[in-house]
Amino acid sequence: MRELIVFLLLILSSCLGVSAPVPPGPRPPAPDTPTVPAPPRLTRELLVVEEVEGFVVGTPPMQLRLGVRGYWPSGCSAEVMIEQRLEGDTLTMTIWRELPADAVCPAVIVPYHGTIPIEGEITRLPSAITVNGWTLRLP
Fold first, then answer.
1. Would residue 97 count as lying in a domain?
2. Does 103 reside within a domain?
């Protein structure tokens, strides 16, 4: 009789889902998640302007061009960026290069001479053109 009760208890425990604890196995490896590097910190290096000349090309519609002479204060090389905006009667231009903030550049002055077309159609000349703080007054 005792064996019958033990047998019935075993069957009943298996039906109720009672089981011995299973030791945890090795964990599956974590999925590889790609890490995106932070974008490089950039700094602006402005062109040091020594001279600006304005000249008109062609007949109406007028095309205004600027001859800009100056230098870059370091020996690093990067794409030259130009931003132009007309505010009132003054045309303001900014010329710069974007360099990594941690760039190590040779300590040399690099000459710059460029001819820059003024964007858009010019109906009348501005009274002043400012390039990186250097101002050219037009008659």
1. yes
2. yes
Cis amide leading into 61 (omega within 30)? yes
Q: Per-10-residue mean pLDDT for the chain, 139 residues long? A: 69 60 70 77 94 82 88 94 91 95 92 91 82 88
> Following DSSP, what letter does each residue of 4-55 receive, concatenated?
HHHHHHHHHHHHTT--PPPPP-PPPPPPP-PPPPPPPPEEEEE-EEEEEEEE
CA distances for 80 relative to 41, 112, 126, 137, angstroms: 18, 10, 24, 25
User: Which amino acid makes up residue 14?
Assistant: S
How many helices (H) does the chain have, and how many strands (E)? 1, 8
Domain-located, residue 131: yes
Residue 25, domain member (yes or no): no
Count CA within 13 A, CB hemisphere, residue 27: 3
Give the domain range for residue 109: 46-137
pTM of the model: 0.68
* Counted domains in the chain: 1
Tokens representing 88 are 């009132």
